[in-house]
Amino acid sequence: MRRLRAREPLRRLVRETRLEPSQLILPLFVCPGEGVRREIAAMPGNCQLSVDELVKECAEASRLGLGGVILFGIPESKDERASGAYAEDGIVQRAVRAIKRELPELVVITDVCNCEYTSHGHCGKVVGGDVDNDSTLEWLAATAVSHARAGADIVAPSDMMDGRVAAIRRALDAAGFTQTPILSYAAKYASVFYGPFREAAESAPRFGDRRSYQMDPPNAREAMREIELDIEEGADVIMVKPALPYLDIIRMARERFDVPLAAYQVSGEFSMIVAAARNGWIDGERAMMETLVAIRRAGADLILTYFAKDAARLLA
User: How does pLDDT run across 133-154, given as a tens digit for each residue?
Assistant: First the structure.
């Protein structure tokens, strides 16, 4: 076996898993203001960006050949109805229009959720101290339509409400956006690895947690049911989130379903690698590439990752 491992050209020749910049999606956080580039302490190298700075970041993503970007919004104000999520002049809607004016060919995905926009930080309408699944669907559908109207190429519901893919598909079709795909966060676990993201998106819940609507980490067969239901409801792409602690789920989904499969290497995964590298405990670049290849090897076609730009530069 050692003969084909002897030199890098030989290793490259027989390499089974390929990683390319076009398979990487860069998450970005857009906030109000102008000239704003506010670093996120828990996610070194990532920033909250005003629309003008966001467009610059997207231009770099395009130059690096990334597959696209996904946008998360930080509104000027929050309320119990998450009205900033579906407002026609909301922060994400303005950002999408600005990106499309300058970079019409860049694939822009928008996160469809409510947690960044609600005063209580939960992903839906709170009734009797808990999130009411069915009444939340109207908000999600309105948000998806407003994003599509602004020019989003793909909408990505991340809330984990039952039935939201079907509700969004009906609303998009009724509004004339029959060609807008849905990337569903189909198997999203109630994970500890979201911690840094909640600082970035200012979306930590004010009470309780999200375990009643996000998946329980010990469950694998349930993930297959969630994915199957979303596909039946009209999802064009499915996602497993987080990635590294759930490589088995990615592999199970790849073997069972034929639709495009995404995985989200979430903020906690990113921050652990960066922190260890900064302490000199691991080689940061090698850890970055090894984990991305592992996610691809497990079966993911697309990877949402905060390493997207750095990885693309190494792959160039």
Answer: 999 999 999 999 999 999 999 9
